[in-house]
Design brief:
The chain is built from 16 helices and 23 strands. The chain is α+β, with helices and mostly antiparallel strands and 542 residues long.
Length: 542
């Protein structure tokens, strides 16, 4: 076996251990060195003596992933490819086909082509399944096949894809792709501005500031800042976006760690754009990290009314640490705290249940905003005013995660003509059609109660049921399965919101979806109504 190859593979994990150990376990350096020596000896002997041929790279990848798995999902080893992806996400630009692509059940799907970019120009649409890229069949490619779509500007790639059962081909000419932090902004009415901030990359504060100034120039006297679905990003950009609405020198975030150098206070450093303009922040269950810093700090400072649904609850801060051969360790270094002193981390990754899943925070502590209003920690940012239609629930999440909403939207697109945004209307009959679609699909959603019953029935060694009890349990399971279709009706508002979002994007891209929001989105309409009532708006903040 190639000794040099083994050395190259070994170095990253050693570097990970040394970097973490040197800062966190100074008093246990001997123990760290001891464990490294044990691991390297084991790895060498395993590869030299195992009965079959081993793959050192795969073994090391498994070792690293398992080592980090018991920590938290944000502490990750980044290979050279991952490092480049991380850089692209933060920079806001890359070269490729200009489409969101996802692997799902061994399929490579076009999720969303960006208007005017190569995939769109080549005619690809959401729902297309890519089955071959160049000479490589996706089914035969062990790694993430979407990487084959990336490449330098002006280079071309041939793709074969399946659409509604038909096999089609296209040649895509790659180009530079700009990832806007602010994909859309406009006036809701004569005096109300609407700004969508979709991610906190390096462009976030600059683009938000430009949008705010432009809309104020058009007469905006009130602002709705939409952070729904924003997964976060750069901490510095969260501070700078908040700074647009609060004075220079305001404390926004405090980070606390067992490593002293990571204990910091982050204050605003710039001149604000407007510290008085009435402001509503929209959040939902997918608003995370930097989104929660902005919404949570502006809530704590009584600078904005937060509306929507409880946010994701990520109160942890990561930093990339450089390793060897172009790799990195993205490691959780601290927790962050908003101005009131609360940490909104929702999941406790260091205390797990019987299934080794992180325990969700259910015991919340109360804190006070600058004006003395009560706010909570531990479970994301709880809005001042909740909007029922955008609340998350297990059923809606399962429908999204299993691509049921996505697949229905694909079928809808190829069976309905919608000439313009204003003519789109998702009727009750359409929702009935969706319910039938779900009943005929292979959608599977197991509740906690069902899981418990199945486990009890399977546990024949410790629990003995007679035939009557077993039959009753089987009947109960059958009834529970049937009730899931009834639950679709119960949660129609939340599910229909997701269906409408996905369907509108198919016809009018993401920009068209935001135009649809201006007239139809329940949260925007409620925020506009609140902003048009000064006394009610001020009453929320007192």
């Amino acid at each position: 076996m190639n000794t040099l190859l083994k050395k190259k593979i070994l170095i990253p994990v050693i570097a990970v251990l040394v970097l973490v150990g040197a800062s966190s376990f100074k008093s246990d350096f001997f123990e760290i060195a001891k464990q490294i020596e044990i691991f390297t000896t084991l790895f060498k002997e395993l590869n030299m003596n195992y009965v079959d041929e081993t793959n050192p790279a795969e073994l090391m990848d498994t070792a690293i992933k398992n080592m980090l798995e018991d920590l938290d999902p944000y502490t990750r080893f980044l290979n050279e490819q991952d490092v480049e992806t991380y850089r692209i996400n933060n920079a806001g630009q890359y070269s490729g086909i200009g489409a969101l692509v996802r692997s799902f059940k061994d399929k490579l799907l076009i999720i969303e082509p960006h208007q005017g970019y190569p995939a769109d120009v080549a005619g690809l649409k959401a729902g297309d399944e890519i089955i071959q890229i160049g000479e490589t069949k996706v089914a035969d490619f062990d790694d993430n096949a979407s990487e084959l779509l990336k490449g330098a500007n002006n280079t071309s790639i041939d793709v074969t894809y399946k659409r509604q059962g038909k096999i089609m081909t296209a040649t895509i000419k790659r180009a530079g792709v700009e990832i806007d932090a602010v994909p859309f902004y406009d006036m809701v009415d004569d005096k109300t501005a609407y700004i969508v901030l979709s991610k906190f990359n390096a462009k976030a504060s600059k683009q938000t500031k430009a949008a705010l100034i432009d809309l104020k120039g058009k007469g905006a006297e009130k602002v709705i800042l939409d952070l729904r679905g924003n997964p976060g990003g750069l901490l510095s950009e969260a501070i700078n976006v908040t700074n647009l609405f609060v004075d220079k020198g305001e404390l926004i975030v405090t980070t606390k760690s067992k490593v002293k150098k990571f204990n910091r206070e982050y204050k605003t450093k710039n001149k604000p754009v407007d510290t008085e303009i009435p402001l509503v922040i929209l959040v939902d269950g997918s608003s995370a990290s930097a989104s929660e810093i902005v919404s949570g700090s502006l809530q704590d400072l009584d600078r904005a009314v937060v509306m929507g649904a409880r946010s994701f609850g990520k109160g942890l801060v990561q930093r990339p640490l450089k390793l060897t051969y172009g790799t990195q360790l993205k490691v959780t270094i601290s927790r962050y705290f908003t101005p009131s002193g609360r940490c909104i981390q929702s999941l406790d990754y260091w205390n797990r249940d019987g299934d080794n899943k992180a325990v969700r925070n259910t015991s919340f502590k109360e804190f006070k905003t600058r004006n003395g209003r009560k706010v909570q920690d531990g479970g994301g940012v709880l809005p001042d005013i909740e909007i029922a239609a955008i609340k998350a629930n297990e059923l809606t999440t399962a429908l999204l995660n299993n691509n049921v909403v996505f697949d229905y939207a694909t079928n809808y697109y190829y069976n309905h003509k919608v000439p313009e945004v204003s003519s789109f209307n998702f009727a009750d009959s359409d929702f009935t059609d969706f319910t039938e679609f779900v009943s005929k699909s292979d959608f599977s959603f197991e509740t906690k109660a069902e899981k418990a019953i199945k486990e009890a029935m399977a546990d024949k060694e410790n629990v003995v049921f007679n035939k009557t009890v077993e039959n009753d349990l089987k009947t109960l399971l059958s009834d529970m399965e049937a009730s899931k279709l009834e639950a679709l009706k119960k949660h129609q508002n939340e599910i229909q919101k997701k269906l409408e979002d996905e369907i509108v994007k198919r016809y009018f891209y993401r920009e068209g979806l935001y135009e649809y929001y201006l007239e139809n989105d329940e949260a925007i309409l409620a925020a506009t109504e609140l902003l048009n009532n000064n006394s009610e708006y001020n009453a929320v903040l007192k």
